[in-house]
Amino acid sequence: MMESTPESNGSVNDGNHNRPTPAIHGPTNPMVTPLLTDLYQFTMAYAYWKAGKHNDRAVFDLYFRRNPFGGEYTVFAGLEECIRFIANFKLSKEEISFVRECLSPTCEDAFFDYLGGINCSDVEVYAIAEGSVVFPKVPLMRIEGPVAVVQLLETPFVNLINFASLVTTNAARHRFVAGKNKLLLEFGLRRAQGPDGGVGASRYCYMGGFDATSNCAAGKLFGIPLRGTHSHAFVSSFTGPDEITEKSLQSRDGSRVCNNFVDLTLMWLNKLKGLSSSEGVFGETNQSELAAFISYALAFPDNFLALVDTYDVMRSGIPNFCAVALALNDMGYIAKGIRLDSGDLAYLSCEARKFFHTIEKELRVCGFGKIGITASNDLNEETLDALNKQGHEVDSFGIGTNLVTCFSQPALGCVFKLVEINNQPRIKLSEDVSKVSIPCKKRSFRLYGKEGYALVDIMSGENEPPPKEGQRILCRHPFNESKRAYVVPQHVEELMKCYWPGSADKAREDLPTLEQIREHCMKQLERMRTDHMRRLNPTPYKVSVSAKLYEFIHFLWLNEAPVGELQ
Amino acid sequence: MMESTPESNGSVNDGNHNRPTPAIHGPTNPMVTPLLTDLYQFTMAYAYWKAGKHNDRAVFDLYFRRNPFGGEYTVFAGLEECIRFIANFKLSKEEISFVRECLSPTCEDAFFDYLGGINCSDVEVYAIAEGSVVFPKVPLMRIEGPVAVVQLLETPFVNLINFASLVTTNAARHRFVAGKNKLLLEFGLRRAQGPDGGVGASRYCYMGGFDATSNCAAGKLFGIPLRGTHSHAFVSSFTGPDEITEKSLQSRDGSRVCNNFVDLTLMWLNKLKGLSSSEGVFGETNQSELAAFISYALAFPDNFLALVDTYDVMRSGIPNFCAVALALNDMGYIAKGIRLDSGDLAYLSCEARKFFHTIEKELRVCGFGKIGITASNDLNEETLDALNKQGHEVDSFGIGTNLVTCFSQPALGCVFKLVEINNQPRIKLSEDVSKVSIPCKKRSFRLYGKEGYALVDIMSGENEPPPKEGQRILCRHPFNESKRAYVVPQHVEELMKCYWPGSADKAREDLPTLEQIREHCMKQLERMRTDHMRRLNPTPYKVSVSAKLYEFIHFLWLNEAPVGELQ
Lengths: 567, 567
Hints:
- 2 copies of one chain form a homodimer.
- By secondary structure, the first copy, chain A, is of the alpha/beta class.
- Helix content of chain A is 36%, strand content 16%.
- The first copy, chain A, is built from 17 helices and 22 strands.
- A 6-stranded antiparallel β-sheet of chain A has the order 15-14-1-5-3-21, with helices on one face. Chain A has a 6-stranded parallel β-sheet with strand order 7-6-13-12-11-10.
């Protein structure tokens, strides 16, 4: 139960490059409009226009400078939303008159006519496939077009990529620590940074390897499987089994009816007290909890999963759950399990598991020992790791706050830098070398070694011959003269493809479905050596430039930097 | 310039309680629908319905347990969006059929008819005024209504309040450190957690005391003043003054025209080299930067604010800026200032100020020494504090990432707990005392002392007589027996008012405008003793319960907790 039927996720998958491409839906969040940008993009547009430079052909790179979470990799996400945005980019009359109010009254009318005519038919976007593993300095996207138009895209693109990539990476990291066999549930909507902080997190956590979400809106929008049963409030809203009026339950196969499921449960509760292992563990269990569990089971006999920590896990929650589960078992239903939402999850899960095994053995209920245990209290990478080290019996983790707000690092620093204008390479200098941009319209490649693992990414100028398999290639650190290495790749993959050709006569990459992107992501993560992936002291993955590009960067740097005079 | 005309912010302000209230607009983000909730709210709704309990009258409190950012106060925000949400709460047919797919196929049809008929006409919401200073455990909102309906509101309410309150508090903390006289600009859209992470942050940072935003969408939606000029890319998109073709500038008063503003600027640049203080500081300044500054000044002669760190602040950015500013001055325009976006902001701002003063003195340009300095590189509370201690000449701070993502603590832990059902008080226990809920439908009051400062908040049962001015009141810590104090308040303020009466015959509080909320917030912050507000070791503000409520909490606690048996 609770898996939503995947619906159309609004993505476009035209399947065939030669057919005319159909219209691409607008961004998921209708608030993503051309006004979702910084004012300075409009003031610059005016200044470019006034200088007659607005149609200068500019190339910008979108990239980040450091992997998040102290790690050595990042997952790229948010591309589909960017493409949806530019495919529908058009300022409305109302938006233009708002911009006019914001700019100076001296701005010329003709500029606003120009703004009204802007679209992205003259913009080209190359990008790495969404869901790919990516690294600092290597462009995630290369955006080329009239400088004034491309500048207007900067803020929304960076906004759409930053959080998407950050939270996808966070999800992938949680998956890495949890291992492949655990069920990972995203429960973060209530603690997310606003409504689509929540919706976005649900989508991108699924992309990064989670199995399901609690967020119904995300389930509907993106076809993500949904999970959820009940809360503490449900438990405490009951007073006791007396208030249950409709007590009958039909057996799963429809062959018989139990007229008093409450009594059946009470009978089992009594038997549980007699188990050798229960002695002294519990006396009277909490009656409102018992009533809540029975009611939930009567409503969802096929999906009985109980939150067992409202009063006391071992003295009340577990015995109450087991009594209801055993009564359900009598009627042919298999209980789904328990959820622990507080306390020592390692200890409690082991104790619960022991009790389930005792029941299986002493009461001869086949399979009872394997009943599911979900844990969900303020989990993060660290606590998952600690639980693994300590030993636990949890099958499924519900993770909220730390996952969706990326608590340990809530922002990724994607930037959008001019690298070429009118075929002139441009560089942005900085006292901080890590902030110097890599100039030129570039291509980038991932070189794979014999064992199928990625070895190094290399950027080169657009017109350089691409690296070839089996060929010896010099890979240079972009800024550190002494760091360089020869690589003979077994396989070469070009990283960026054309996702938006504008009016250029080029094929456009399809926008894959969320499910396809998720699979791509899982495959990409497997092609990384685990020493790059581990939590503690991961090995940095190498990012390099071609020898030719290296020379050019340093030529341009010297050319642009003012020469100081020592005093 | 750049201040947007405040538009209708969509808020409702009926002004008069006796008139029929007009319709309330839906939530700002159209993605905020009844499906923006956790699946378990629907499974519980079904279980309540199946048990015939769905109309049980429940009271829930929405509150948080700990102030964020290591502080001792929080600003409450997000209320308007919650009211907009319930005022328009209605599941569409499409939404209901999605819920049906997600629940078990055994769920009865009549439930979905029931869902289709749900609205919030039978729900009552009491809340503290938006923009108020609030404290842990004291309900921010009290929501009463049919249990199944109120549960459906839990996730969206908590989502809408959590980030709003968190980021408003963060803004208020930044304002506290920056001081009243600095201009604070929110520049976070690109790094925010998704599109309405950005829009929400802009709105709530303004509420918490910022002066303006760079986010055009927020400017349009909420009438927040907008700021922004140009980026590094604008600077590096130029090659040199030669490419400027339209060089004329009319004087501010329209009386004359300078036919070659480029030459005028070059003349001033030359003069600057001759200043005593420039000797050896700069030689040839960067030509693309100079061209960019001139072009920006020609486009916005009335609003010339230049980003001066693309190449080298002291050797290039500042002299280029000053040359353009002096040329503008010749034409009757006053330059706005510079922006520093890297490096040692304290040092650079002081050096820039010195240079401006030299120009004022040596070139006799009145007021030049006071030219504005904006700083904007990865600022946060700590760096503002460090700058203050070090001494700086910055007039205006642009703050992005750390502000809008609440980097130092990206989530607030608001919860939504059942405190009463069918007039029966309910409690949620926990091994962790701080997680025990305070039962009963309550009222709460803020008691003020002689100097006008808030002394303590006190919660009491709904039917207790409220505390009175001048009367001696016993305030007890809710869980710690030994912590209690008598207070004689000078002034008593009831904290919660009715913002949504449902169909009850009660007056509804107006929803104030953003501007009004901001003012209320500023006043509230002033009524707090500064020892509660300081960054280091702030004094906790006291939150208490009445003697009667204290007794009742502990009676119920003993009643619900299972009695252990030591083994």
